[in-house]
Amino acid sequence: MLDDPVEVATRLVGERFPQAHAAFLGGSAPTARRTPWSDLDIVVVMDGEPASFRETLRHSGQLVEWFVYTPASLRHYWRQNVSGRRTPLLRMVAEGIPLISVDGVAETYQTEAAALLAAGPPVPGADQLAVQRYLVTDLLDDLRGGSDPVEISFLAATLVLAASDLLLLSGNRWSARGKWLPRRLAEVDPDLPAQLAEAQRAVIADGDREPLVAVVLAVLDRTGGPLQEGFRLAGVEPGR
């Protein structure tokens, strides 16, 4: 494990992108959550060339994920984070450690990103929430009626994700994927991530679906209840 990930990241930015006017080290590497497998998530902002890109390389044995932007493209991908309700880039800047800051511009970016995070995602429409409730209800029926153990295992995993997204959507909270999803979920209900994980384990290890059915029904009850009969979603006629 790196002794000083901030020092290593600062050196790498200086060597590869000396023209950068701002850079940040995000992710787990500069935190207590760091593990021997943590990579360095480095956001670099600079004017002009090269064009924006994301790239993963290994430098002297250390895996580095580079996220390279111009000011305009950085804000473009922030807007994508907001519209998609998932905020990896916003958080890398808002919560990361500044490595380079010409004339204090890194702190300006951090303030802007933090404000977008604090404002929250777009308020979901009634149709968006109904679609997610319908999806979770449908997946729950598939889980109850399934007979193939492989399909049931996949359904359990999909249902955990869909139920998590539903609860976060209903509360107009940011969502996530991977290790960040249970962290976002715990902000709403500290017990729910472990309940979902244990219920999923029961399906896969023991073939017992009832704990997951019960947890997901509880999520549905908190978000308007199961939805099947009466669900209607208006379509769009092209050209009108």
UniProtKB/TrEMBL annotation:
SUPFAM superfamilies: Nucleotidyltransferase. CDD domains: NT_KNTase_like (cd05403). InterPro entries: NT_sf. This is Nucleotidyltransferase domain-containing protein.
